[in-house]
Structures are given as structure tokens and as C-alpha cells.
Design a protein that fits this description.
By secondary structure, the protein is mostly helical. Helices cover about 75% and strands about 0% of the residues.
């Protein structure tokens, strides 16, 4: 065996070890969710699905799931409207100070979520938006818009601007040319941005925990608060479902969209 093949095998082994290390917590959580015991144990003592049924039959968890999905949908739709417009303006219209605008749009990805959450809490207290669904959705959009902007810019950079110009020469107005020519061409990037926006909004804890009002509860915050009173397999069960759904969504997006090109 040559030295090159030895190095290749060693590299593969190292990569496999890294992946195993990263996935070990996920595997432990998944195994614990099937345990028959009322406490977390790995390997599980017996196999059962009753913890999954317990979660889906709990009104508090169901309400948190419905609220989280609705909030994520609202934040995603708003992010698409703002992010697509911003990416188009930055790349096609050459907005004055575009570099500064782009940096501001991506700044929330740099700052810790807790810092942003506290800042928004103080700001909402001044403008009387605490505990409102609109305020919470806008807070989530602060973190989801950058993903749409990045995906939109990546898509637009791969499209010849002369295609839209040709549509205008043939008589189409600016909006018509955008919606009939440009928008269909950047649809894969928009879909990737929408997927990431939904996942980021649905999984958000640092901002939501500061801004939730009376009667409002997202699923991640519900899980976070439930841990304070003890950890049982139901927490592992809902976590396993979230991991599985997120993985399936990302796998489907990669298969049909190739979203790695837009992040």
C-alpha cells in the first residue's frame, strides 16, 4: 500500500471519528426516547413509543407546537418579502452604501442571541410591543432575514441581468419582468432561504424567552422550561422528533434544491 493511500485512509478514519463525536449526543437522545423507564437511561431498558404518544397527547406541547409553526411561518413569509427585495436592490440597483447595508443585514448572525433578546425587550417596552405576536415575529425576522439575503444574492449572481432587460425591451414593466423572469430563476435560492428561515425561527430560544407574552409558548422554550423540573424520556422524545424532521427537511432540500450553494 502506497503512502498516498495510507494518508487517504487515515483521513477518512479521522473524518469518521469527528462525525461520530458530533453525532453522539443525537444518538444518545434518540436512544433515550425509546426507554420504558420513567427516567433517561442509555442504552434503553426495553423499547416503547409511549413517550412520543405522551408528548403528542399533551395539550401544552400541542399548543406550543402549533404556536411555533405559526410563528415560524409568519417570520418566514416576512423574511422572504424583505430578504428578496434587499438582495435584489443590493445586487441589481447598486444601492448607495450597499456594503454598509449588507453588513447591517448580516450583523444579527454575529451578535449573541441573548444580547439581541435583551435589547429588543428594552426597546419593545418603550414602544409598548411586549407580548405581541407582531413584535415576536419581527424579532425572529432579525435572525432569519440574513439567510434569505445570502441565498438571494447567491442566486442573483448566477443569473444574467440581460434576461430581465430583454423582457423590458419586449414591453414588460419592471415588476412584470421581475415576477415573470427573475423570480422563477432564483426560486431555488428562495426555497433554500425559506427553509433556513423556518428552521431558525422554529428553534429560536434566546430571543423568544425574553419576548413571549401571556398565553404564548414556543416549543423550544417549553422544552427549556420543562428541563428545570427534571428530565424524562418525553423531553428526549420531542427532541428526537425535532431532529428527525429537521434532518428530513434538510435532506429533501439538498436533494431537490442543493441548498449548500446558497449558504
Amino acid at each position: 500500500m502506497t503512502a498516498a493511500r495510507v494518508r487517504a485512509w487515515l483521513l477518512r478514519a479521522w473524518v469518521a471519528l469527528v462525525f461520530a463525536y458530533l453525532l453522539l449526543p443525537v444518538i444518545v437522545v434518540a436512544l433515550a426516547s425509546f426507554s420504558r423507564t420513567s427516567y433517561l437511561t442509555v442504552p434503553p431498558k426495553g423499547l416503547t413509543l409511549r413517550w412520543f404518544a405522551a408528548v403528542l397527547g399533551d395539550p401544552d406541547y400541542v399548543h406550543a407546537i402549533v404556536f411555533s409553526v405559526g410563528l415560524a411561518v409568519v417570520a418566514t413569509v416576512g423574511s422572504l418579502a424583505v430578504g428578496v427585495a434587499a438582495s435584489y436592490a443590493l445586487l441589481r440597483r447598486r444601492v448607495p452604501g450597499g456594503a454598509v447595508v449588507s453588513a447591517l443585514l448580516n450583523a444579527p448572525l454575529i451578535f449573541p442571541g441573548v444580547v439581541v433578546g435583551v435589547a429588543l425587550l428594552q426597546f419593545y417596552a418603550l414602544v409598548h410591543m411586549n407580548g405581541t405576536l407582531i413584535g415576536l415575529a419581527l424579532a425572529h425576522m432579525v435572525f432569519t432575514v440574513p439567510y434569505v439575503v445570502r441565498a438571494g444574492l447567491a442566486s442573483l449572481q448566477g443569473i444574467d441581468p440581460e434576461l430581465e432587460s430583454a423582457a423590458r425591451v419586449l414591453g414588460a414593466s419592471g415588476p412584470v419582468a421581475f415576477f415573470t423572469v427573475t423570480l422563477p430563476l432564483i426560486r431555488p435560492g428562495i426555497a433554500a432561504g425559506a427553509l433556513f428561515s423556518f428552521i431558525v425561527s422554529f428553534d429560536n430560544v434566546p430571543v423568544s424567552i425574553f419576548l413571549l407574552g401571556a398565553g404564548q409558548m414556543t416549543l423550544p422554550v417549553k422544552i427549556f422550561t420543562a428541563i428545570e423540573y427534571g428530565v424524562d424520556p418525553s423531553i428526549a422524545a420531542i427532541s428526537t422528533m425535532l431532529i428527525a424532521l429537521t434532518g428530513l427537511g434538510l435532506a429533501a432540500a439538498e436533494r431537490w434544491i442543493g441548498f449548500h450553494r446558497f449558504v
